[in-house]
Structures are given as C-alpha cells and as structure tokens.
Amino acid sequence: MAASDVKLVGAWVSPFVTRPRIALNLKAVEYEFLEEVIGTKSELLLKSNPVYKKIPVLLHRDRPICESLIILEYIDDTWTSGPSILPSDPYDRAIARFWGCYIEDKIFPNLGRIATSWGRDVEAIEQIKTAIEMLEKAFKDCSKGNDFFNGDQIGYLDIALGCHLGWLRALETMHGFKAMDEEKTPGLAGWAERFLAHEAVKDVDPKVGRLIEFAHEGFSSPSRTNRRACGRRFPSSSLPLRPSMQNREGERRRRAIGRGRGGPSREEDEQNRREVD
C-alpha cells in the first residue's frame, strides 16, 4: 500500500502519537507523517477529529480514526499479515484491554502533574511508583516468562506502556526520582531496555535529552503563577508554547514529514536538537 493511502497526524513529543507509529512500523506499513505544530490546531486536524480536536489521527484512504488505543486495534485488524498486536485468545485480549485502561488512568495523567509542577507534586510521584509496581505484576502474568507483555514479540500492552518511557525517564532525570528500577521492578526494567531497542521503536521513540529540552522551553517555570493552568493542557496537542518555540516547531514540521517507516532520520533528529541549543 502506498504511503499516500496512510497518513498519521501527530507531533513527535506526544506519547499517544508514538503508539500508532510503532504499530505501523511493526506491520511494515508505509505512511506519511504529518507533523502538527504544538500550540496550534491545523485545519486538517480540526476536520479529521472535530469531536476532541486532538492528536493522533490516522487517515486511511482519507477516512479518520481517532484515539491512540483504538488506532492500534484498527491497525491490527486492517493489516493482518504482520505480527499480531492483540492476543488471539479472547480472554487474553480482554486482559490486555483492562491493563491498557489502567495505563491510561494512572501513567500519563500523573506524568503531566509531575512535569507541570516541576517535580513538586509528591503525590503524583508516589502514584506513578505504585502504578509501575502494579504493572510489574501484570508483566509477569501476561508475559508468561517471555520478553514482552505480548510474549516473544511486542504487542498492545507493550506499546500502550512503552510509549511513556521517554517522558518517564526524562522526568526521573529532571526531578531525581526513580519509578522503574532493577531492584523493585526487575521485570519491567529489563523489558524497557528490550522495548526501546526494538526495530519498530528505536527510530520513533523521542530521545530523553530532546524531551528535557522541550520541558524546559515548553512549560512554565516553577515560579510562574500559571503553572496549573498550563498543566491541565499537558496531555493534548494544544500545549501553549513560547512564540520562539512555536517557530522552531513550524520549521521542524516543514522539514520532518515522515517517509515510510517513521519520519525524520537520526541525522535529521540530531540536527533538530542542535538547533534548539
């Protein structure tokens, strides 16, 4: 299928956009990545997702599919020749969806609270740690001794949780806490390294250093009184940025249209990072 038949509207910084990028790579589906400028909403986005007006949106033959976990299921159902994303057994599929909902409820909302409070939200940090410990147990049950939640290949739960690893590590580095380590969560610690090294993941997962740069430029400083107002918008594509950063994001969008399996090359990514400095 030609890349023009499959398009993904998103932004590199969003873990929810990383999900379908990984799934499309896993299925070896060529696609065009349409980079949204953070802080704005394009006409295409508003037309494609008039209900929530959020990324990601998958356009398949000009028909929009919204919400990242729903997109994962659509990709799995549509391109059946590649590795299965959801388990084949109905019970195992139900369990995967259950833990997917748990990840939606517990991981990113608390990451957003940590980011926009600049590490001062102790409750959010504790909730992240508790959630990761719970997911350690889920990993043991779902993996059945294999490398991934989905067995010997990454799947639905691997992608649902793995897309947050970049932001988790960035915030751990910035604010001096550790939620996933070899002592308390050895299973997930090993899983994380294998997941990030996977061919379908490594070229589309945002690098920690670049996320830290984005956090410093994109969020209000701890002394700013509008920190909480900014925080409420953290999970969406409408995060307000300084004008200078919007200009840089616009330039990235013009240069970084995805080609096939995953958007900008490593060389382009490094060039983008140097321009932020």
UniProtKB/TrEMBL annotation:
Top EC class, one word: transferase
Catalytic activity line of the entry: RX + glutathione = an S-substituted glutathione + a halide anion + H(+)
Cleaved signal peptide residues: none
Region called Disordered, residue ranges: 220-277
Domain GST N-terminal: 4-83
One Pfam assignment: GST_C_2
CDD domains: GST_C_Tau, GST_N_Tau
Keywords noted in UniProt: Transferase
The GST C-terminal domain, residue ranges: 89-214
E.C. number: 2.5.1.18
Family as reported in the entry's similarity comment: Belongs to the GST superfamily. Tau family.
Protein known as: glutathione transferase
